[in-house]
Amino acid sequence: MYGLDLADNIARLRHERKITQEELADFLGVTKASVSKWENAQSTPDLLMVLELATFFDVTVDGLLGYEPQLSREQIRRRYGELSGDFAKLPFDEALGKVRSLAHRYYSCYPFLLQLSILYWNHFMLADTREEQLKLLEEADAWCDHILENCSDVGVCGSALVVKAGLNLQMGRAAETIALLEPAAEPERLAGQDSGLLVQAYQMVGEREKARSYVQARQYLGLLNMVGDGMLSLALYEDDLPRCEETIHRLKGLMRGYQLEVLHPNMAAQFYFQSALVYAVNEKWDEALEALGAFEKCISRLLEAEEITLHGDEYFDLLDEWIERLPLGNMAPRDRGFIYKNVGESLGHPAFYGMRERKEFQRLVRRFTNN
Fold it and tell me: Which part of the chain is the HTH cro/C1-type domain (predicted)?
């Protein structure tokens, strides 16, 4: 699918120039039979002849060979979507082989290599054994190192650092994760002030629409961070039920106000699932089932949508433009089939063992394990 296309390109470019094989052969000082063999992939021109062909057709050598060392943003999004779907549809080793082949081919396309690292991060758990999972995480970690050592794009390198930290955490290397992220977390770095200054600068030069768009993006990310940090708090304080219940109460109010279940059902689903775990750990079975009911509602919203995408709403009416500038645009990082599989496995969490005989819980399990 991604092989070189020298033979086809010579024939295509020759037809576009409206010249015969004989005319091309005369220009290059070779026989018509040589040109015919090149176009039928029976032989290939030597290096000097490739240079002459590229000059004659006024294309780069890469263009003549059909080799694309760099991918456009749209190409990266399309191939990420294909590969994400492969993990849900193909045997795991086959999907993995396609990723590795593309990583080898586009090893210098750092934005794409970054997305392949994220792809591994999102799907490594599909490997059969912990040893295989660690191997994949190590592989993605090495890609991040390659990006950090060679890429000059500050944004790509910053993202690669965060992904590397996440991969190390999955490998149980908490100390390495701290070493990578702690410097950026120091208060004197005035985290977040840069974007606030940018909004003010847009206002000063009269670009109010850009200022508004950026403010909406900051609000949106702040909302997701608040809910995400709340989930971490629930996990850290699961033995302090009163505190957890207050956290759940406050976050539900925030989510209701911003209509997060519609705006970002995946984030809302994660919150309700974490809430269910807290209640289950504390043997509050009715509350756990209620939280799982809200979780199911969010997952249903995801699965019933024509496409699983990130999007704004009537309040965040300038958000879609900002989302489009993300590396993957509005594309979901995981496929619909993967969501079913992941939800089914999540319901097998040991914390839910005490309510396995309840009919409502059994219905949930059946729904997400029979697809």
Answer: 10-64
Let me know if 186 is exposed, middle or buried by CB neighbors in 10 A (0-12, 13-18, 19+).
exposed
Cα 175 to Cα 129: distance, rounded to the nearest angstrom: 24
CATH 1.25.40: does it fit domain 73-186?
A: yes
Closest-CA residue to 279 (of 266, 268, 263, 295): 295
Q: How far is CA 277 from CA 122, 136, 237, in A?
A: 22, 29, 12
Q: Taking Cα atoms as reference points, which of 73, 70, 67, 100 lies closest to residue 86? A: 100
Q: What is the pLDDT along the chain (371 residues), one digit of tens a residue?
A: 334 578 888 998 899 889 999 999 998 999 999 999 999 989 989 988 988 998 888 888 877 887 666 788 888 998 998 999 898 889 999 999 999 999 998 888 999 999 999 999 999 999 999 999 999 999 999 999 999 999 988 889 999 998 999 999 899 988 888 888 877 655 444 445 556 767 777 888 888 898 898 889 889 999 999 999 999 999 999 999 999 999 999 999 999 999 999 999 999 999 999 999 999 999 999 999 999 999 999 998 888 877 778 889 999 999 988 888 877 777 766 666 677 778 888 889 999 999 999 999 999 888 887 65
Can you read off the two tokens belonging to residue 111? Answer: 């934005």
Determine whether domain 6-65 maps to CATH 2.30.110.10. no
Residues 68, 57 contacting (CB under 8 angstroms): no
Pick the closest to residue 320 from 196, 217, 198, 212 (CA basis): 217
Q: How many whole angstroms from its chain centre is CA 154? A: 19
Domain ranges of the chain: 6-65, 73-186, 192-369
